[in-house]
Write a structure and sequence with these properties.
The chain is mainly alpha-helical and about 110 residues long. It contains 4 helices and no strands.
């Protein structure tokens, strides 16, 4: 096992075992289920102003939390969790997709 892999695995053990993960990590599951539900609703009504705004708002919130959790890993834990990194990248991709969908479905200006 490489040193980098051991370092990342140690980060997972520390972030799960320490008190840095509130409520056992269920907030992440709820976030992804909510975003999946928004995506499903947007598939049926892609021009809904409320759904489009909610997708951008909640993906922005998720991105901010991902940045905060990355800060905790760097500043306090001093190790990275591979699952947290995958979640951060996924959240960033959701934000990019929500923002691009919001811009693409804007009403044309006349």
């Amino acid at each position: 096992m490489s040193a980098a892999h051991q370092w990342m695995q140690r980060g997972c053990e520390q972030s799960v075992c320490e008190h840095f993960q509130p409520a056992g990590g269920y907030y992440g599951v709820v976030y992804y289920l909510y975003m999946f539900g928004l995506a499903a609703l947007l598939a049926f009504d892609p021009f809904s102003r409320g759904l489009r705004f909610a997708a951008v708002a909640y993906s922005t919130l998720g991105t901010c939390f991902s940045i905060y959790f990355m800060y905790l890993q760097i500043a306090f834990i001093h190790a990275f969790c591979i699952y947290c990194l995958v979640s951060a990248v996924t959240t960033l991709l959701l934000f990019i997709a929500a923002l691009s969908h919001f811009r693409a479905t804007r009403a044309p200006t006349r």
